[in-house]
Amino acid sequence: MAFADPRDANNIAAANEPHAATLSADYAHLGDQLARAGVKIDEITRAIADFKVAIPSWGVGTGGTRFGRFPGVGEPRNVFEKLEDCAVIHKLTGATPTVSLHIPWDATPDYKELRERGANLGLGFDAMNSNTFQDQAGQKHSYKFGSLSHTDAATRAQAVAHNIDCIEAGIQLGSKALTVWVGDGANFPGQSHLGRAFERYLESQRQIYAALPDDWRLFLEHKMYEPSFYATVIQDWGSSLMAAKELGPKAFCLVDLGHHAPNVNIEMIVARLVHAQRLGGFHFNDSKYGDDDLDAGSIEPFRLFLVFNELVEAELAHAPNFDPAHMLDQSHNVTDPIESLMTSAIELQRAYAQALIVDRLKLHEYRMANDVLMAAQTLKRGFTTDVSPILAQARARKGAAIDPVGAYRASGYRQKVGMDRPGKQNLGGGII
Ligand code: LRH
Ligand code: MN
């Protein structure tokens, strides 16, 4: 298969050509439909064009589960190759200008060189992610029984030092935030003192917080369970919010959609964190049972819409301290990671556009009149409107691809990297 670089603007323009006429017809039709409801389609398209979400560096490799991993073709072997793939996603969607790195998975001797490479590819660096949920070769103290909340002071100090190293690396990369997720917790009742574990966590986080540059944010990521199966130190948004408030104004709560029990009302959590002025950002993905890390909008698109509905309400209300960082956090076990990340970024744009076209005046009237059915119908009409022409038009106007997956497949990129990157055959378990 001939290779035509999918990041090349001419190749993207050529790929768009056959779609241009259909797109403008569909866009005009939707524009008429929305105009009848008092919505200016170009305003929505501009908002979608400005929407951006960060790519998780660990998402461009093939993921796995504890039962196994089935390596894909042409997997990136280091952070530089990961950036190459992230650039394909950004060029074709126009929506993913930053990459969120994970240390030490992406550790490299020269972060300045990495920053330059990113810049050459049109990429910046979003929140850094620390890792004290795995032991590294030669590590002095094991994280088997925890890290920031470990009963042993030397292990906590080691974990604190690692997080400060991540901040140092991020400063060189131009990042402005550190995301801290710890798997710390217990598998059995009695194993840990639930209160003291939280206090040890806070004591460690105070030292990390003190190392933050003034213009940085600290994102605390809660998770109900896994790898701890009875109690997790930062198990829910309540624990995360308590910690953020105790740490200081630079500490915020990060909502990973997969980190909640099935049927938890995540949009309600978002509304509360907006009220508390501590909504730091998101790890978007989808799930049916546990932390499945499936593609965003693939299982519960209505729930994703309801989350963006809360974000639009906050935007319109000019909520104070409201600047959520959007990131994807997914594990691609059976799809091409580039295709999954492109379609997931677009599903976030879809939920945002659907929330933006909701007739908020009508919705407010029905709510104040307690006309329950019409209020629910008015909100749902946003979700049931096919906004695909807006999403494609936003891409086309930015020089991105009208049909990103089609353009990507036609480029032969996967086959090309398959030849350039001899496969790494580690069939073991684990997400990467
Ligand atoms: C934990 C998590 C966290 C990352 C990891 C890769 O489940 O969501 O955000 O560090 O996945
Ligand atoms: Mn996450």
Structural write-up:
The protein has 432 residues and is of the alpha/beta class. The protein has helices at 9-16, 20-36, 41-50, 79-93, 111-120, 153-173, 194-210, 237-247, 266-275, 301-316, 337-356, 360-368, 372-383, 388-397, 404-411, 413-420; strands at residues 55-56, 64-65, 68-69, 98-100, 124-125, 128-129, 177-180, 185-186, 217-221, 231-232, 251-256, 279-284, 325-328. It has a 6-stranded parallel sheet with strand order 6-7-9-11-12-13. The longest helix has 21 residues, at 153-173. The two termini are 28 Å apart. Residues 58, 129, 181, 221, 223, 256, 283, 291, 329 line the site of 6-deoxy-beta-L-fructofuranose.
Give the radius of gyration: 22 Å
Number of helices: 16
**What is the N-to-C order of secondary-structure elements (H for helix, E for strand)?**
HHHEEEHEHEEHEEHEEHEHEHEHHHHHH
- What's the N-to-C terminus distance? 28 Å
- Give the names of the bound compounds: 6-deoxy-beta-L-fructofuranose, manganese (II) ion
Going by helix content, strand content and strand pairing, the class is alpha/beta
Spatial ordering of strands, largest sheet? 6-7-9-11-12-13
User: What is the strand tally?
Assistant: 13
Overall average pLDDT: 97
Extract low-pLDDT stretches. Answer: none
Largest sheet: 6 strands, parallel
